[in-house]
């Protein structure tokens, strides 16, 4: 992550830096070290901007991979009834999303909910079907929106399409959609921003 950040801070314009930090928010906390030498070389060589590269060379990238909306929430999503966290367990789609003991290190427990309702972990989206089953799937190509909403006052993750709430089944630690119940702690989530232990 440190080397990624050095590249981003050397070559990306501010607009594109923001896209990277939306995708990898923990990188904001990483100490990248001194890049003054790289910036001086970039200036000496009179390099074109990254915006020029995107418009003249990689002009079709944003059509296929639109700019991500800002993150409304990101970090570990902890269930208040069980004290377990959303976890992809490193599994590839299609796979059920479960919850497991929170480790605070991000990785497969690092989730992002953007302002357009897409709930993701890496390149995978949290999806649900009409039966209430919740799983990880590859995000729809070119899509940055989704059906999810975090209701701050109730601490519930709401599915706008099915009008139900994300719940954790304590017997299996699996995730399902259930009719929203403001008094059910298995439907309540706290979201904690994470700082990587290797940030410095």
From TrEMBL:
Domain (Ricin B lectin) ranges: 71-192
Cofactor names from the entry are: Mn(2+)
Alphabetical UniProt keywords: Disulfide bond, Glycosyltransferase, Golgi apparatus, Lectin, Manganese, Membrane, Metal-binding, Signal-anchor, Transferase, Transmembrane, Transmembrane helix
A cellular component annotation (GO) from this entry: Golgi membrane
Spell out the subcellular localization from the entry.
Golgi apparatus membrane
What processes does the entry annotate via GO biological process terms? Answer: protein O-linked glycosylation
How does the protein's chain sit in the membrane according to the entry? Single-pass type II membrane protein
Which pathway is this protein assigned to?
Protein modification; protein glycosylation
User: Looking at the Swiss-Prot or TrEMBL record, what is one Pfam family this protein matches?
Assistant: Ricin_B_lectin
| CDD domains membership | beta-trefoil_Ricin_GALNT7
Q: Which SMART domains match?
A: RICIN (SM00458)
Q: Which GO terms describe its molecular function?
A: carbohydrate binding; metal ion binding; polypeptide N-acetylgalactosaminyltransferase activity
In which family does this protein belong, per the annotation?
Answer: Belongs to the glycosyltransferase 2 family. GalNAc-T subfamily.
Its name, as the record gives it, is Protein-UDP acetylgalactosaminyltransferase 7
Q: Which organism's genome codes for this protein?
A: Lepeophtheirus salmonis
């Amino acid at each position: 992550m440190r080397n990624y950040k050095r590249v981003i801070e050397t070559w990306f314009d501010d607009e594109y830096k923001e896209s990277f930090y939306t995708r990898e928010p923990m990188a904001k906390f990483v100490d990248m070290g001194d890049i003054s030498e790289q910036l001086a070389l970039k200036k000496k060589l009179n390099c074109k901007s990254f915006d020029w590269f995107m418009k003249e060379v990689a002009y079709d990238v944003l059509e296929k991979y639109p700019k991500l909306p800002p993150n409304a929430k990101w970090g570990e999503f902890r269930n208040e009834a069980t004290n377990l966290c959303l976890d992809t367990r490193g599994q590839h789609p299609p796979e059920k999303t479960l919850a497991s003991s929170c480790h605070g290190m991000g990785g497969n427990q690092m989730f992002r909910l953007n302002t357009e309702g897409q709930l993701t972990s890496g390149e995978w989206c949290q999806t649900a079907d009409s039966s209430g089953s919740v799983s990880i799937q590859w995000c729809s190509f070119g899509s940055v929106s989704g059906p999810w909403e975090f209701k701050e006052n109730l601490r519930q993750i709401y599915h706008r399409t099915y009008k139900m709430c994300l719940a954790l089944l304590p017997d299996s630690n699996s995730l399902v959609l259930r009719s929203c119940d403001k008094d059910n702690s298995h439907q309540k989530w706290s979201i904690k921003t994470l700082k990587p232990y290797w940030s410095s």
